[in-house]
User: Which sequence fits this backbone?
């Protein structure tokens, strides 16, 4: 099993450009998450999904959109990238909510110039 | 997030010594407390977790203790080794949706 995978691994954008980050998991998990990681600030939840077709806002949702059209995929979109969105983005999934291990993807390093 | 405070932010120990990282949380309803380890350039991975019905849990050289009254929990690593060098994150559920909120991380360096 591949676990949780993310594409791309690296990306450089110019301010105002758009992009989509793809997360895929093969563990049949219901719950999926998008986090951003910035130096000294830990992992902050952007959006999450409790099942196919559902999404919800996390701690820092502004400037991002998400979709969960298939159970195994969770997409994170940036419609108009800003330098403040320069970060490392991690996707994660879990079997259950709140009391279970989250499995993380390898991360995407995004730089917005 | 502000719900979880983690200290210290950096910690250096000599190989073979013990390391302790402490987290405090604000939501008294929190009932699950995991610890994740993140090596340089890698993804976070769960190393140990504890639920609120127990006060301590051990797994070889790693242990976690929980004090629900004081609302804090700690990670203890004994007989540290160079491969223990990493960033460690604590987390706790928070908010109406009980989503995990992570501490800001502790950079542990084990000196040979």
Assistant:
């Amino acid at each position: 099993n591949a676990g949780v995978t993310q594409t791309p691994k690296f990306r450089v954008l110019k301010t105002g450009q758009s992009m989509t980050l793809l997360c895929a998991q093969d563990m049949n998990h219901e719950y999926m998450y998008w986090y951003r990681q910035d130096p000294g600030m830990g992992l902050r939840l952007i959006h999450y999904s409790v099942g196919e077709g559902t999404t919800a806002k996390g701690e820092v949702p502004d400037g991002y959109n998400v979709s969960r059209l298939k159970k195994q995929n969770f997409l994170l979109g940036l419609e108009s990238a800003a330098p403040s969105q320069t970060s490392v983005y991690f996707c994660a999934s879990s079997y259950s909510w709140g009391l279970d291990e989250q499995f993380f993807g390898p991360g995407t390093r995004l730089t917005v110039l | 997030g502000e719900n979880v405070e983690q200290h210290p932010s950096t910690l250096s120990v000599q190989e073979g010594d013990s390391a302790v990282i402490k987290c405090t949380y604000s939501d008294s309803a929190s009932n699950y407390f995991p610890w994740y380890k993140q090596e340089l350039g890698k993804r976070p991975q769960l190393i140990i977790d504890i639920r609120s019905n127990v006060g301590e849990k051990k797994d070889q050289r790693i242990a976690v203790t929980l004090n629900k009254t004081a609302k804090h929990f700690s990670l203890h690593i004994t007989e540290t080794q160079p491969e223990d060098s990493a960033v460690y994150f604590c987390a706790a559920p928070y908010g109406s949706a009980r989503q995990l909120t992570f501490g800001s991380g502790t950079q542990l360096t084990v000196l040979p």
Q: What stands out?
A: The interface with chain A takes residues 1, 6, 9, 31-32, 34, 42-46, 49, 51, 89, 93, 97-105 of chain B (CB under 8 Å).
